[in-house]
Write a structure and sequence with these properties.
Order of helices and strands: HHEEH
Distance between the termini: 49 Å
Shape: extended
Radius of gyration: 19 Å
Helix content: 55-70%
Strand content: 15-25%
């Protein structure tokens, strides 16, 4: 029997896979708007309860997860092509 936690993991993987495959298909067709993918949200998280100075905050940058995966796959692919052509 599949537990609820495992079901949620499987469901998330299926959704992520569909979204990423569409992302790579758009890139392959030349219709992927890369400028829309590379966005980030910068937030300040207080280190103390009464944070009043900038030093009392922790800076966090939240990137689009799809963009992270896309750049990792693209970097790995480009690296393998470069090494195969350079004979290294």
């Amino acid at each position: 029997m599949v537990s609820l936690l495992n079901f949620n993991k499987i469901f998330c993987i299926i959704l992520l896979k569909r979204g990423l495959m569409a992302l790579f298909e758009d890139f392959n067709c030349g219709t992927l708007p890369l400028h829309n993918l590379n966005f980030r949200t910068i937030i300040l998280v207080p280190k103390t309860n009464e944070a009043k100075q900038i030093q009392q905050y922790r800076l966090m940058c939240l990137l689009n997860v799809s963009f992270k995966i896309f750049t990792k796959v693209a970097t790995n692919r480009v690296t393998s092509v470069v090494f195969s052509r350079s004979g290294v």
